[in-house]
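Anyone able to model this chain together with phosphoenolpyruvate?
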Amino acid sequence: MYTLASRGQRGQSVVDVGGVRFGEGFVIIAGPCAIEDAWQIDQAARGASSAGAAMLRGGAFKPRTSPYSFQGLGEEAVGRIARAAAKYRLPTVVEALAEAHVAYLAPRVTMMQIGARNMQNFALLRAVARAGAPVLLKRGPAATLDELLYAAEYLLVEGNEAVVLCERGVRGFDPHTRNLFDLAGALRLKELTHLPVIVDPSHATGRRSLIAPLVFAAAAAGLDGAMVEVHPNPAVARSDGEQALDPPSFEALMTRLGTLLAFAGGSNGPAKVASAAGR
Ligand code: PEP
Ligand code: MN
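re: yes, here you go
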């Protein structure tokens, strides 16, 4: 049994990530699929920050289906997101694709991501947990909820309690959405575990038109946040442009989310959009 991840008699855990508190308000993480040039990540960070996102995301080491696709700019990209994050005072989340990346990332990012394809890479889970940074653990595209919680247990058993889970869609049968967004599964997770649970409608659907309504659904349902791909010019993005919002669309999403959460205040759902500390 995943005893450390189980909800049991415990209340909701709050995971602090550079002052952003997952498990209290509704946390929005925004940023590009991949970190490209310095201007791109600066503009993405600017758009994220001005619209009220709490954290900045960006991939440096990309888990691409094809080896011929853009693989990310590696360590150079980590420096770029660190500079943009410092400028706009946003904590960062960056994926560790392999054990070899962990030591480099740990002192340079606020949170490390385990991507969906690596959810059951147990050696990587242990290495990331031991590095001590908070971890964003994404559900594998064909993983059951129990398998996700056992993967979380690998992190917790190493003594790292700063774990946030992310539902990013599972393999479905209909090509109209990239994956099948499992909202019920995310809600069931909240019953099974004390860990915060967020959603990623960009990777779940592959379509920018579906991002905002699914963020609103997750917030209304009482989940703990959402991660959204935002690119200053999605038409020229080197990866996942079709599922990225541009900064004006992201700002519109955030404005509407604020209104919806204010309206929902006092119910069981989170009453407000969480912000980055000190801003
Ligand atoms: C990502 O968030 O950068 C990503 C590659 O997502 P996933 O691992 O869910 O496919
Ligand atoms: Mn992506």
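The mean pLDDT is 96.
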